[in-house]
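Worked Example 4.2. Read the sequence first, then its structure tokens.
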Amino acid sequence: MATERTKTTIREFIDFIAQNEQAGERYELINGEIVEMAPVGYPHSKTTIRLIRILGDYVEAGNYGEISTELGTFDQDNDKNLFAPDVAFYRAERFPEPEGFLNILPDWVIEVVSPSDAHNKAARIDAKIKQYQAARIPLLWYIYPNRREIDVYRPDTPMQTYKVGDTISAADVLPGFSIEVKTIFR
């Protein structure tokens, strides 16, 4: 008879992080499983930095909210996920000026896919997308630097793929914001 493995809670995960913070590894909690995050390569880093610059300037100019990178964030109603998105946007009226991890989910999550994740898509990417969708994140971008494509997810809407030559909008969560896909991959 098979036994189900006990899922890690957010409190247990935070304790785990505190005990292992000197080791230098990075982790997320996805559906109660502790997932180690591998170091990123140059395309991932370059894309993330470009997005932070572009979004940071736009958000600051309009006083729309806050941009973060790899900030631990969780939903108080689900103690099995503590995400650390590559880039996240929080509307100003929702951002609590926290200390430590945020106990609210972002309005917009951007994940930049590393080749190691793309090769293990079902285990790494699909599982995380499923959890983001279950959390009803209003806007989710999965960026593939090597393919130069962006998969966009919104609740109750089929996934859309954008390529170089397309313009992509996030105006539903960040007023007036749109960008040409090629700008992200320069």
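Now turn to a second chain, presented in exactly the same format:
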Amino acid sequence: MPRFGRGPALWFVTVLGVAGCSAITSFDDFVGATDGGLSDGSSGSSGASGSSGTSGSSGTSSGSSGTSGTSGSSGTSGTSGSSGTSGTSGTSGDASTDASSDVAGCTLKSTGFKAGADTLQVSVSSGLNWIFDARAKTIDGSSSYVNVTYVYPETDYLVVRGFGFGVPANATLKGLTAKVVRRSTSNQMRDREISLLLDQTPVGENRADPQGSNAWSTTLTTVTYGGDSDLWGFTLTPEMVNAATFGVGFRAKYPNASGSDDAEVDAIMLSVSYCE
């Protein structure tokens, strides 16, 4: 029987959140107050009575309340009492943070789901080619597709790559989440594989349903694979995921002993979670 499908392979991967983590800062404002020193000078033996001490200036600041001003001392022999010392300004309160962190204490960030810049197909033995693979880069209802039969029941890899993540070189990768928007014509298609690819070579572990037991819906449905703490069984670096040749490959299969069904993929996107 002939193999069905044409066209360049198309991948469209978003790189979830995961999600990034956000800091929340709160301050309680307090007003430091000082009680000004106030005292009457005692009568001099021969001079006029001492003038009362001038009250201390109040200290105002965020954080703890200021220290009360010292009262003025009594005037000696008719000399006016000295003014009270101004209250000391309160120390500003420190900002508290409520950022999401991992166990190592670093803030978890996410690139968000991103579309790939390039698509291609990677052939497997007896695999069928996808038609219009470039359509898998954008969620727009225009799908890449292939008719899969019981004679040739599996597809080639539909690959989307070149996501332009821009993950910092000093970051520690935590997980990757793929999002595939797909459907089948007759509700018969199943996942065969979804894997990460480096230079068109699958690496790590397959994150599709191991038994391929979940039938695809006949309407476009978004399905996620992996997660913010899932590295897909492979040690990745920022340099790897930022590369134009880093991508995600998706394969479908037809499980029945007769007949056929159409597999359609509208988009494949990828998200990377990391901390620094």
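Notes for the reader: The chain is about 0% helix and 30% strand. The chain has two domains: 27-94, 108-275.
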